[in-house]
């Protein structure tokens, strides 16, 4: 995350954090599936209108819990980066994050477990409908998805079940989440074709999406499609995996991007040919706290070339880093400096 203007950016985050500090309720035993002492979001609707079904408690919808799993680490990271001395509140955010009510789950007839709509109910969106139970993948995220195989499988099964490719103004949310979790070899081409079909069907030449049976147009949902493109070109949400360039661009498709922002205050540029050769990889430290930071990149040249040459374009220094067993290379970036990376180090003696 990057807050370019601490006087306005932090003021906004501070208010959002204060709202959730006050709004969450510490019950647990009052809501099915919530451990005693966990924090719940009550009087909270799964959809735009709360359910009138007496068997459904309007508490802990997936969309809210996935947002909070993403937000509390953002509050902590932002306060730390801006050197805000808030030890008591940071401790509170850590406590709330660790003790949120669990995400609602539903078991399908084929015994797959997917994310439900609201806690204590079998309510969940139907296949092809508004994917309100996929928000943990995008626009939210939980860092444990990088290490918890069970949680990641539930999200993957939820995305496989939903198939929300033609959902009016809600369609951009689904493919972005799918692109983050899907298996590239198995799903990249199918997803690419589905996104292209959705764009052709629903997006006009002015990039405004057609919404609903009356063909209303809403610019915000059309703009959200940019998120899909970003996720195809670069991903950095997974702290364990590191930064990945062109993680879900299908084989045979050339692509390039300049100065897309990656987690950790980095600006990244890269190119890829139709044959899959990656070049012109550049990273710049754009941290607003003026600090150095660890960079982890999933090498686009691994395993064929097991090392990466890194050149500091600011100082002229250059060195070679060997990839680990998962193809990741790591180095420290310094404020204001720009680095060029290439695979020429793969032929060098380390």
N-to-C order of helices and strands: HEEHHEEHHHEEHHEEEEEEEEEE
Strand pairing plus helix content: what structural class? alpha+beta
What level of helicity do the residues show? 25-40%
Average pLDDT: 85
Compute the gyration radius: what is it? 22 Å
- What quaternary form is this? single chain
**Total of DSSP H or I helical runs spanning 4+ residues:** 8
Strand order of the largest sheet: 9-10-11-16-13-14
Strand content: 15-25%
User: What ranges have pLDDT less than 50 throughout 5 or more consecutive residues?
Assistant: 346-350
Q: What is the CA-CA span between the terminal residues?
A: 35 Å
Number of strands: 16
Describe the global form.
Answer: globular
Largest sheet: 6 strands, antiparallel
Quick structural overview:
The protein contains eight helices and 16 strands. With 350 residues, it is an alpha+beta fold.
Keywords:
two-stranded antiparallel ribbon, six-stranded antiparallel beta sheet, alpha+beta, disordered C terminus
Describe what you observe in this structure:
The protein is α+β, with helices and mostly antiparallel strands. It is 30% helix and 20% strand. It contains 8 helices and 16 strands. The chain has helices at 6-23, 62-81, 87-98, 149-162, 173-181, 184-202, 219-223, 225-233, and strands at 25-26, 39-40, 105-107, 113-115, 209-211, 216-218, 234-235, 244-245, 255-262, 266-272, 278-285, 293-298, 307-312, 318-322, 328-333, 338-342. The strands form 6 sheets. A 6-stranded antiparallel β-sheet has the order 9-10-11-16-13-14, with no helix packed on it. A two-stranded antiparallel sheet has the order 1-2. The longest helix is centred in the N-terminal third of the chain and has 20 residues, at 62-81. The two termini are 35 Å apart.
């Amino acid at each position: 995350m990057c807050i370019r203007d601490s006087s306005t950016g932090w003021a906004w985050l501070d208010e959002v954090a204060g709202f959730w500090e006050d709004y969450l309720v510490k019950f647990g035993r009052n809501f099915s599936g919530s451990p005693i002492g966990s924090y719940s979001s009550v009087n909270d609707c799964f959809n735009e209108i709360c359910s009138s079904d007496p068997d459904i408690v309007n508490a802990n919808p997936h969309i809210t819990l996935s947002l909070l799993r993403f937000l509390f680490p953002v509050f902590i990271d932002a306060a730390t980066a801006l050197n805000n001395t808030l030890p008591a509140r940071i401790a509170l955010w850590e406590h709330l994050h660790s003790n949120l009510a669990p995400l609602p789950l539903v078991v399908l007839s084929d015994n797959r477990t997917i994310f439900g709509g609201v806690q204590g109910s079998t309510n969940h969106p139907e296949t092809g409908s508004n994917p309100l139970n996929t928000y943990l993948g995008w626009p939210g995220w939980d860092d444990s998805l990088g290490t918890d195989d069970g949680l990641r499988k539930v999200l993957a099964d939820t995305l496989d079940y939903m198939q929300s490719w033609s959902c009016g103004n809600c369609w951009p949310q689904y493919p972005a989440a799918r692109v983050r979790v899907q298996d590239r070899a198995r799903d990249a081409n199918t997803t690419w074709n589905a996104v292209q079909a959705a764009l052709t069907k629903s997006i006009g030449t002015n990039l405004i999406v057609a919404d609903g049976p009356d063909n209303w147009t809403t610019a915000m949902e059309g703009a959200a499609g940019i998120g899909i493109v970003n996720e195809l070109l670069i991903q950095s949400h997974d702290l364990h995996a590191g930064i990945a360039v062109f993680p879900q661009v299908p084989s045979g498709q050339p692509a390039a991007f300049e100065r897309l922002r990656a987690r950790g205050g980095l600006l990244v540029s890269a190119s890829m040919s139709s044959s899959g050769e990656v070049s012109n990889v550049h990273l710049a430290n754009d941290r607003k706290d003026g600090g150095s930071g660890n960079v982890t990149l999933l090498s686009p040249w691994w395993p064929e070339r097991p090392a990466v040459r890194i050149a500091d374009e600011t100082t002229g220094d250059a060195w070679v880093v060997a990839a680990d067993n998962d193809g990741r290379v790591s180095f420290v970036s310094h404020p204001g400096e720009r680095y060029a990376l290439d695979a020429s180090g793969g032929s060098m003696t380390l």
